[in-house]
Amino acid sequence: MKVYAMNQLLFGSKHQPLRKNTPVIALIVTFITLLLFTVVPLCYSFLGYPFYPSKRFSRPETSDSSSVSVEFDSIHEHESDRKCDIFTGEWIPDPHAPYYTNTTCWAIHEHQNCMKYGRPDTGFMKWRWQPDGCELPVFNPAQFLEIVRGKSMAFVGDSVGRNQMQSLICLLSRVEYPIDDSHTPDEHFKRWRYPSYNFTLATFWTPHLVKSEEADDQGPTRTGLFNLYLDELDEGWTTQIEEFDYVIINAGHWFYRPSVYYENRRVVGCRYCLRENVTDLPMYFGYRKAFRTAFRALNSLENYKGVTFLRTFAPSHFENGEWNRGGDCVRTTPFRSNETSLEGINFEFYMTQMEEFKIAEEEGRKRGLRFRLLDATQAMLLRPDGHPSRYGHWPHENVTLYKDCVHWCLPGPD
Ligand SMILES: *[C@@H]1O[C@H](CO)[C@@H](O)[C@H](O)[C@H]1NC(C)=O
Ligand SMILES: *[C@@H]1O[C@H](CO)[C@@H](O)[C@H](O)[C@H]1NC(C)=O
Ligand SMILES: *[C@@H]1O[C@H](CO)[C@@H](O)[C@H](O)[C@H]1NC(C)=O
Ligand SMILES: *[C@@H]1O[C@H](CO)[C@@H](O)[C@H](O)[C@H]1NC(C)=O
Ligand SMILES: *[C@@H]1O[C@H](CO)[C@@H](O)[C@H](O)[C@H]1NC(C)=O
């Protein structure tokens, strides 16, 4: 395709420049769009700046991993003025947002329909992401659908991934609603098809990415005790994924829960299982191995030709206590980047998946498979105000995660 044609496709007209301060919502969706451009070489050069930063990161030298923090600027290096790292920036006010509501979009999951459950403030919907040093182009649902015409995209992971897929459906709903094309009645495995574009969206539920089972629905913390088979594939997704053109993988929050780690079908340790003679290992142990196995699966599937995106860890924001010990998220505005930093568990999750991503990317390159980083961590870290908190259900409802500082309101930041 000629650059001119692509120009028209993406921005309507050859002569229409990128508008300054164009409103952008639904950050993840915007990132996906930009990354899709980067896998279409002409679009890539046309846009004038490679979004995909060259990652020259290394683990800071420190002996105390609980207090380390990371400067995103040092990870996403600006190589020259013309290049821009879309993943580093600030949230700035956007008076035009939100771009859909719970009445114009039916795809909002109940527990993320914050306005329905009485969230009193609306300011959290009115921000857009401003990368340092450049503007994000407008998210245009029609253009997005053109780019993905005839393609398929899968969200693989946990409910935060599903949350983001629903955000995408809501944003695209101005152009078209998909039809339910699910292969199973199981709500954890949905397929949606956009008839006019022959575009398929799917979610695959695999919160641990690898084969797992709930060994005990209580466990030491009453959040279940899981057996994780760290070197075995979760066939619920690995047997279905070959046909997909774009695979967006995420995991994180489920690794907090007590788990027994298996390799080669033998117990190698556990995360807070309180079993005699079983070595307690950090949750990053399981997290690293799970990503390794998942990426290896993709790199070894004979017919997989897709582009794999790692959507990096989206931190939760419980303050003044853990999720089950009075923690809550009551802020109503984003952080500025100088008000918080990635540290402790969030940092470890982030670095662990980055390291596994790098290995997988290298392996993939040998096979001609492309891996892309959808590095949403900093942007999401800055949004303590975007969670449902207690507005994800009615007050009298007895739900486990009573105050939800993990998922994201829709409409909302993600
Ligand atoms: C949408 O949110 C409003 C409050 O803004 C609420 O009254 C209504 O029930 C919600 N509707 C749906 C369909 O969720
Ligand atoms: C729709 O897209 C799929 C690939 O996702 C392709 O196999 C199929 O032929 C397409 N159908 C039409 C009618 O274009
Ligand atoms: C734990 O190990 C000790 C020493 O090897 C052994 O005596 C004990 O029976 C083990 N306990 C369990 C529950 O396996
Ligand atoms: C963060 O930066 C803003 C704007 O540059 C400044 O006004 C504010 O005082 C800074 N806050 C902190 C905690 O350094
Ligand atoms: C809430 O649900 C849990 C588990 O289902 C149950 O043990 C508990 O008694 C319930 N609490 C109330 C107040 O209904």
Automatic annotation (TrEMBL):
Membrane in keyword set: yes
Localization, UniProt: Membrane
GO molecular function ontology, one term from the record: O-acetyltransferase activity
Transmembrane segments: 24-47
Trichome birefringence-like C-terminal domain boundaries: 136-413
PANTHER family documented for this protein: PROTEIN TRICHOME BIREFRINGENCE-LIKE 19 (PTHR32285:SF48), PROTEIN TRICHOME BIREFRINGENCE-LIKE 9-RELATED (PTHR32285)
Protein's name in the database: Trichome birefringence-like N-terminal domain-containing protein
